[in-house]
Amino acid sequence: MKLTVLHYPDPRLRLTARPVKEVRDSTRRLADDMLETMYDERGIGLAATQVGITKRLLVMDVSEDKSEPRVLINPVILNKSGVVESNEGCLSVPGFYEPVRRASRIEIEYLDRDGTHVRTEWEGLQAVCAQHEIDHLNGKLFVDYLSALKRSRIRKRIDKQRRDIA
Ligand code: QAP
Ligand code: CO
């Protein structure tokens, strides 16, 4: 089932998500719905916060052919190293892309779709995407890293788009 993605500046995007206590069938159904939503919207990552669910769960697929769906439950970044500037966008801020500085390499642990504990090291787009999505679980958006001027320009354009539609 396709879910509705919340758009900035919806206040629900600022909520802090709570850990998943147990990985059950309902957890897997939510993850599958989030993957369906992410693929349908041409995204590479989607956090539960973005669909109005305050659980520490996110999905991503940074592969070229959309063949590597990943489900991350209760993800924790254990170590970060290196610096990279990535041009980021967000399904919750459609139409806007800006450079953001991130760690280029992360050590991460999480539970997968089966509830299996995974500990691994990622780099490149996979590492950047995981950092962006974990930020969502903490109520943080990529626009928070931009200058106040850039952020207010984005806000103004979004407010105008809304007015034009209404
Ligand atoms: C986060 O973002 C990300 O504006 C995932 O019109 C992005 O999937 C991590 C999207 C870049 C690392 C690098 C954005 C789709 C998708 C849009 C997304 C849009 C349609 C964004
Ligand atoms: Co996002």
Structure characterization notes:
There is one protein chain. With about 170 residues, this protein is of the alpha+beta class. The chain has helices at about 25-40, 125-135, 150-165, and strands at about 45, 55-60, 70-80, 85-90, 100, 105-110, 115-125. The strands form 2 sheets. A 5-stranded antiparallel sheet has the order 1-2-3-6-7. The model has no long low-confidence stretch (mean pLDDT about 95). 2-phenylethyl (2E)-3-(3,4-dihydroxyphenyl)prop-2-enoate binds near residues 44, 86, 90, 91 and 95.
Q: What's the SSE pattern?
A: HEEEEEEEHH
Main beta sheet: 5 strands, antiparallel
Oligomeric state of the chains? Answer: single chain
Computed CA radius of gyration, to the nearest angstrom: 16 Å
- Global mean pLDDT: 97
Strands side by side in the biggest sheet:
1-2-3-6-7
**What would you call the structural class?**
alpha+beta
Straight-line N-to-C gap? 28 Å
Q: Approximately how much helix is present in the residues?
A: 25-40%
Number of helical regions: 3
